[in-house]
């Protein structure tokens, strides 16, 4: 059996087309959605992500700007900027690209962002709301994965879901979303004793490991839905996911490719969250 491919690129495009009308309506009412992305340092991968985020906004008529700081900037300078943006009515979303340099207290920076402008969904208030099953902003990557399940008509209720990876950005919020959708959820990590035993009984397998081709065909239950969150660069410069795509394609029921899978959905859901923030603001006025 060859798996059905869940095309994130096509779904992202379809959703972004649908956002344009909402952006136009907000702009006409004086609430043009605005996102600021803060980048500290010059990590090449982060630079690409940040550029794609800003360009994604501009392409659908939103306002977006990037603020960059040298890696040596002190935390107080960044916190002052966040305070200024929190008070700026033209800005609906604030995103600080992670990871931050080592001298930063990441949690303090994320908590400084006003919860109603936290379009990443990383503020404790938003994490808590998600954990309680009443999300306000859903972290963009797992949110994108949920949209892909919807597109692939994947019914999550009662399914065995296994998430490999327990990061705050992907693994934990992904697990919460799956729990909220009625799945039975196992979160694995690098210390998990019998990883194979877990993955082989997964109806839904989400790989957020950060290791190229980590998930091999023998780890996948026939017919499972395999979601590849990884974006790894191989020595030859090519991108590859956390899943051995060619091998798993023959075992899985549905699978996401890399590139063209989860990646384009992450930025799409960032746009969705920023538009949502602007709509809430417009409704409150
Ligand atoms: N670094 C990697 N992924 C993300 C993300 O979704 N948001 C932010 N702010 N930083 C990241």
Please explain how this structure is put together.
This protein has 285 residues and is of the alpha/beta class. It has 2 domains: 30-117, Leucine Dehydrogenase, chain A, domain 1 (Rossmann fold), CATH 3.40.50; 140-263, NAD(P)-binding Rossmann-like Domain (Rossmann fold, 3-Layer(aba) Sandwich), CATH 3.40.50. 41% of the residues lie in helices and 15% in strands. It contains 10 helices and 11 strands. The protein has helices at 8-28, 44-59, 75-86, 106-112, 124-131, 140-151, 171-180, 195-199, 245-248, 262-284; strands at residues 4-5, 34-40, 63-69, 93-96, 160-164, 184-188, 204-207, 225-228, 232-233, 239-240, 254-255. It has a 6-stranded parallel β-sheet. Strands 3-2-4 form a 3-stranded parallel β-sheet, with helices on both faces. A hairpin with a 5-residue loop joins β9 and β10. α1 runs parallel beside α10 and α6 (140-151) crosses α7. The protein is globular and about 50 Å long. The N and C termini lie far apart (54 Å). The model has no long low-confidence stretch (mean pLDDT 97).
């Amino acid at each position: 059996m060859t798996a059905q491919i869940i095309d994130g690129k096509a779904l992202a495009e379809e959703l972004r087309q649908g956002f344009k009308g909402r952006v136009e309506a907000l702009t006409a009412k004086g609430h043009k959605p605005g996102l600021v992305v803060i980048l500290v340092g010059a990590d090449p991968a982060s630079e690409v992500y940040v550029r794609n985020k800003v360009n994604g906004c501009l392409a659908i008529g939103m306002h977006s700007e990037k603020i960059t700081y040298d890696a040596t900037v002190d935390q107080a300078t960044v916190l002052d900027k966040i305070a200024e943006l929190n008070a700026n009515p033209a800005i609906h979303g604030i995103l600080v690209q992670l990871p931050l340099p080592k001298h930063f207290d990441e949690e303090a920076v994320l908590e400084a962002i006003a919860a109603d402008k936290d379009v990443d969904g990383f503020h404790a208030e938003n994490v808590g709301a998600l954990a309680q099953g009443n999300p306000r902003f859903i972290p963009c990557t797992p949110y994108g994965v949920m949209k892909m399940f919807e597109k692939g008509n994947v019914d999550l209720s009662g399914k065995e879901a296994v998430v490999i990876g327990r990061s705050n950005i992907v693994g934990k919020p992904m697990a919460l979303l799956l729990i909220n959708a009625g799945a039975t959820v196992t979160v694995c990590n690098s210390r998990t004793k019998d990883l194979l035993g877990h993955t082989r009984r997964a109806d839904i397998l989400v790989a957020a490991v950060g290791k190229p081709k980590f998930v091999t065909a023998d780890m996948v239950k026939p017919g499972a839905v395999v979601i590849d969150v990884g974006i790894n660069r191989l020595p030859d410069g090519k991108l590859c996911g956390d899943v051995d795509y060619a091998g798993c394609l023959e075992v899985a029921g549905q699978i996401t490719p890399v590139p063209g899978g989860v990646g384009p959905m992450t930025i799409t859901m960032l746009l969705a969250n920023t538009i949502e923030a602007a709509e809430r603001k417009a409704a409150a006025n």
